[in-house]
């Protein structure tokens, strides 16, 4: 799965991750992280035969058969996608750390805008991975079971989702963190002269919301631990369903893809297909 994501030097990069089974090799963020090496021009290595399992699931659903397999494949995809959301939010928090260590050369106004945008994105990623619903055609989320959270963690989760619902996705004027989360808005009257009033309005920018940042830092590892475990379970279930259903070779190959074209580059394809069953990898690759 690729994401366009800028570094501090504003170099466009993409983040790719792969889940291939029920266990994983842990690295800095709970996954093996590498900077991919480019292959020499024209050097396309031999890669594994690659099947688009979501396309297989869609085909099974259209035919009305093997619903257990189709459901298991979709559940595995959804869980891994939510893990990727949370890992990207972690990277954003690390970027914010670097931004707040010292004033960059581009100055304070731009810094405040960058911090605000990054924090907004991180909170949206957290909320869509852990709480948002999924209508027809939407991914949905992996809900955090309240029984697995402490009272403080439940409150942190509620606050982050409330920011998403009351300040980012909508503006709820009666929420505890309402429309003034990013900017505070005023509509007021000012006396021009005795007996004469003028109506005026204005907004003041808040910049980085430190309380929300602290809450996000506490809650991200909690959510990631729960949803990554769920993702491993879903991958195991998908592998078991695939073994039990045992679709024919012809059925599988109908959904074969060219890994270089599908993943976007030789480097991404190599990273995605390099691990063994259960390995999880992340890498930064230049966008094309």
Overall description:
The protein is of the alpha+beta class and 288 residues long. It contains eight helices and eight strands, in the order ββββααααββααβααβ. It has helices at residues 53-63, 67-101, 108-130, 151-168, 210-245, 249-253, 259-263, 266-274, and strands at 4-6, 12-19, 32-35, 50-51, 183-193, 196-205, 256-257, 280-286. It has a four-stranded mixed β-sheet. A hairpin with a 5-residue loop joins β1 (4-6) and β2 (12-19). α2 runs antiparallel to α3 (108-130), α2 (67-101) packs antiparallel against α5 (210-245) and α3 runs parallel beside α5. The radius of gyration is 23 Å and the shape is elongated. Residues 1-36 have low confidence and may be disordered.
Helix content: 40-55%
Which spans have pLDDT < 50 for at least 5 consecutive residues?
1-36
How many distinct helices? 8
Let me know the largest β-sheet. 4 strands, mixed
Total DSSP E strands: 8
Strand order of the largest sheet: 1-2-8-3
- Kindly state the mean pLDDT as a whole number? 79
Beta-strand content estimate:
15-25%
Which shape, going by the Cα principal axes?
A: elongated
The termini sit apart by 15 Å
Q: Which structural class best describes the helix and strand composition?
A: alpha+beta
Please trace the helix and strand order, writing H or E for each element. Answer: EEEEHHHHEEHHEHHE
